[in-house]
Amino acid sequence: MGKILEVRDLYKLYGGEKKQAVKLGKEGKDKAEIFKETGVTTALWNINLDINEGEIFVIIGLSGCGKSTLIRCFNLLNRPTYGSITFKGKNINKMSKKEEYEYKRNHIAMVFQNFGLLSHRNVIGNVEYGLEIKGENKEERRKKALEMIHLVGLDGLENTPINNLSGGMKQRVGIARALANSPDILLMDEPFSALDPLVRKDLQFQLLRIKKKVNNTIIFITHDINEAFKIGDRVAIMKDGKIIQIATPEEMTTSPANEYVQNFIENADRKKVISVKNIMISPSSLIKVKDSPSFAISVMRNNSISSAYVVSEDMEYLGVITIEEAIKAKNQNLKIADIVNGNVDKISPDTRISDIIELSANAKYPIGVVDDDNTLVGIVTKADVLSAV
């Protein structure tokens, strides 16, 4: 997965003595001190980041942190004061007028918080609009528009006037219109923030579903940490025009960069972010399938537990045996392979804790954790799950 956008040493400054402002900032002056001494408002300060093809990259922060200013630099609604933004190896700030027009028309699109739809057009008329501007023939743009309307779940509403739609439906139209142009990058500036919670959750789910079918890059702005963690492959937290941390939701939850990040994410639903690999432990009672029942009994007795995990010689997970079954096997001269219970639950290390709460509550034994080759890599106990929740 290659880089689609590379941002280096990016500044957006307003008013005053800009070069002096940068000098003071590099000397350690904060935003307020810079403004007092130079009259410069620092909207963006030394932004450096890479965005990968096909990912959902979420930018989050409090109002005034610079997130909307940054995203508008990507489509040149804002022109950076200093620094570069490179799209597939081309600095967009140094593009010719023709190249810039091509970039804006074919490679990047935006979905706005206030929908930005044309009230005098119906649903399909709005979705077709960008294709119409590009000069596509009527038959082709109608075909693409219908595909996008189906993708966002608005079948049957093609001819509905925009003013007859709910807020959630209007935003679906906005997404369909943006996607109809097949952009490499879709910018979304707090697109769901004006919607009620139930509609917002539904659109978050729909966005993830759409993303699987349309493999473009999405740069998404929000002020809601749970929304950021739900949809983002990676998340960037901003403060006072600066990037504080860029990480996956799980990395940020388990290893926040500083106290500011910790405080910012403290209300996030941890169980929906943290995966099993962060809470699994090594099994204390591990039995090879070629071991004897007597050895299995000894291992369980020494560890003061009544069950053990059975693996092959190359650590493939085969199942569980209990102390009762091991004793029975010893008395009847059976082998471990004769008594192992292979009908047990197993999960991946990347499984989210929220997805195994019910499974763990009903499990007779700690759940085995296996990799893609069915190799046992750990176990998760009911106590581990409950304490994480």
From TrEMBL:
Subunit structure: The complex is probably composed of two ATP-binding proteins, two transmembrane proteins and a solute-binding protein.
Any one GO BP annotation for this protein: glycine betaine transport
Residue intervals of the ABC transporter domain: 5-265
Keyword Methyltransferase: no
Organism this protein belongs to: Peptostreptococcus porci
SMART domains, A to Z: AAA
PROSITE patterns, sorted: ABC_TRANSPORTER_1, ABC_TRANSPORTER_2, CBS
Identification of the protein by name: Quaternary amine transport ATP-binding protein
Domain CBS positions: 280-336, 339-389
